[in-house]
Amino acid sequence: MKDVMDKTKKVSLELLPSLLAVISALIVGTIIIILIGQNPMAAYKAMFKGAFGDMRAFGNTLQRATPYIFGALSFLMAANGGLFNIGIEGQMYIGAFLSAIIGFSLTGVPKFLHLPLTLIVAMLGGMVWACIPAILKVKRGVHEVIGTVMLNYIAFALTGYLTVHVFHDPGLVAQTFEVSQSSILTELVATSKLNTGFIISLFLCVGLFIFLYYTPWGYGIRVNGLNSTASPYAGINPKKVMMASMVASGAISGLMGAERVLGVYHKFIHAFSPGYGFTAIAVSLLGKNHPLGIIPAAILFGALETGGSAMSIQVDVPRELGLILQALIIVFIASAQFINKKIVAMNGEVR
Predict the structure, then answer these.
(1) What's the whole-model pTM score?
(2) Between vectors from CA 194 to CA 191 and to CA 198, what angle results, nearest 5°?
(3) Which fold has domain 42-344?
(4) Are 76 and 284 in contact (CB under 8 A)?
(5) How far apart are the first and last CA of the chain?
(6) DSSP string, 156-222
(7) pLDDT of residue 4
(8) In the structure, what pLDDT confidence band is assigned to residue 228 with cuts at 50, 70 and 90?
(9) Residue boundaries of the structural domains of the chain
């Protein structure tokens, strides 16, 4: 009984910074709403109704949360291995583009073969793109942040060039041809774009939770992430762990891009992302880099986006308030991380 109480207390303390960040963001949002002359209660009520009021609204919220779940899983996989993967966006673009190519190139293939093949190719694309900074890190000591950031721009430019000059489908935007029906992820809610990609993301959350916390390989990854200098004394090869965690991270990023193409747009649209890969880092931090913790964090971010649009229609409050709340949560989470490190450093100096 005592062990259960101790674990509950520990979890509560770990979640406290995230909860305070959300509450603080809502308080600042309340002040902003008052300053523009509107009723905060009415605004937040409209936002909540727009995000969860009916099946269509709830479906849209989960649909917007799906890429954040994939992206946060990608980030935490690398983070647990001791790396900071800021290249999720680029890996996502590569996976999305390849899923579109396989999606419209193959015809007459049954869905039970075409769809898995398309998802696998997208994952392989993300893996290959993540391998580049991982090899540079392990072999040459190049910091992964530098490598992944540079590759983000290359992925964006490369997929844009190929979309416009090689696989362009005439239209107002730079887009590829539409994928075949046999490669499309099934819709879960007819009135929204929510698809089976959301179910895949939930299974992936549970799978990574079991892998990281209940297998020796997951234990090795987490130990290396906590202290890569000391991990060799536990029989762990830091370079192998870093490579494996970054490659796995890239695979998830590729799957993230495939979900947008096969489940939402049904084609690759250049510059389709509003910054999924970067926002996903904040979602992962809000969920304490835990595979199960990121689910409510991602749904919260999805609700802020969906609810913000509904709020702007029902109450005279700009829809950008939802994005402002997201930004505030990111700021408060980052502040909490900074303060926590300072406190730990000060305690170490005192001792």
Answers:
(1) 0.92
(2) 160
(3) ABC transporter involved in vitamin B12 uptake, BtuC (1.10.3470)
(4) yes
(5) 33
(6) HHHHHHHHHHTSPPSSSS-B-PPPPGGGPPPBSSTTS--BHHHHHHHHHHHHHHHHHHHSHHHHHHH
(7) 43
(8) confident
(9) 42-344
